Amino acid sequence: MSPVSPTHAGRPAKSRPGLTLSAVHPASSIGAKLRAIRRDEDITLVELAERSGVDIATISRIETGRMTGTLESHMRLANALGVKLPELYAGIEEARIKGGVSVQSSSQRSEVYVHEAGKSSVAMLTTEILKKKLMPTIITIQPGGSTHREEAKVGTERFLYVLEGTVEAKVGTATHLLKRGSSLYLDASIPHSFRNPGKSVTKCLCVTTPPVL
Description:
Distance between the termini: 44 Å
Helix content: 25-40%
Largest sheet: 6 strands, antiparallel
Strand order of the largest sheet: 1-2-3-9-4-7
CATH topology of the largest domain: Jelly Rolls
Number of helices: 8
Structural class: alpha+beta
Number of domains: 2
Order of helices and strands: HHHHHHHHEEEEEEEEE
Strand content: 15-25%
Shape: elongated
Radius of gyration: 25 Å
CATH superfamily of the largest domain: Jelly Rolls
C-alpha cells in the first residue's frame, strides 16, 4: 500500500453545527458509514483509493458489507476522509443494536399474500423480510382451502405450529394430520402444501429460514 497523500490527510469532513459525525451519518456498519461520508464529501471510489492507499476493490467490499477490513485500512480511510478513527466508529454499535429490534403491531401489518381466491393467506409478522435470517408468518386457511404447493431451495427449513383448527400437511408423498397445539418441522426443499380439512378457520404460526418469497 502506498502512503496517504499529505495534501488530503487533513481535509475536514462536512458536518452540521452542534451534531456529531454519528448524528450526521447514522449507520449500523463501518461500510455504510464510510460510504455515507465519502458521498457527502463527493469523493469517488477511485479518489479515495488514491488518497488512502487502500485498494479500490477492498473499499468497495467494505462499503457493501462483503468484508469488514482491517484496523490499518480503517485508519487510512478515515485519514483520507478527514475524520478521526473514533469518530468513524461512533454510533455504529448503538445503531446496530437499535436496528436489531423490530416491533410491529397488528394494525401496522400490511404485507398479506392471498391465495386460492381468498381460501388461504400468509401474513408477514415482521418487516424487511429479506434482510433477516428467518421469516415468521401467520398462515390462515379457510375450510376446504389450501396453500399453494411449495418447493424451496435445498437448505431451507420450515417450522409450523397450529394455533387454531386442523391442518392436513402433505410433505412429499406423506400426509400428516395436525391439530391445535401440534407442530411440524420439515426440510422445505421437499414439495409440500397445507390444507384445511375441517369446518372452521385454521391458523398456523410458520417460521422459515432463510426467508423465501
